[in-house]
Amino acid sequence: MNTVTSCYLEITAARYLKNYQIEFEFNDETQTIIDFEPFLKQAKNPMLKKYLDLNQFRNFTVRDGDSDWNDYELCFPIADIYEGHL
Q: Residue 8: what pLDDT?
């Protein structure tokens, strides 16, 4: 893991690529690509399964340094995204 000059990690940008892939950039300039499809396909909760609809999935934002879908209905630990796994 790269050394972050501040005390915490935050997502500074996120860009939808294709299918269920998003590229994230962090405050230490690290970039990582996450494929959310395996996680979503294994989800048992119907509130998470709805994000298999690409229209729902693509509707994310970066809020306060974190990924956010529908007011944190779906979110992931920043450290997991940073390390490239869910």
A: 87
Per-residue pLDDT, 86: 84
Strand partners, 31: 25
- Compute the distance between CA of residue 24 and CA of residue 44 in angstroms, rounded to an integer: 26
What is the rounded distance in angstroms from the CA atom of residue 56 to the CA atom of residue 52?
A: 7
The pLDDT assigned to 1 comes to 47
DSSP state string for 11-72: EEEEEEEETTEEEEEETTS-EEEEE-HHHHHH---HHHHGGGSHHHHT-EEEETTEEEETTT
Domain 11-83 has CATH 3.30.2020.10: yes
Structural domain boundaries in the chain: 11-83
Residue 7: predicted pLDDT: 65
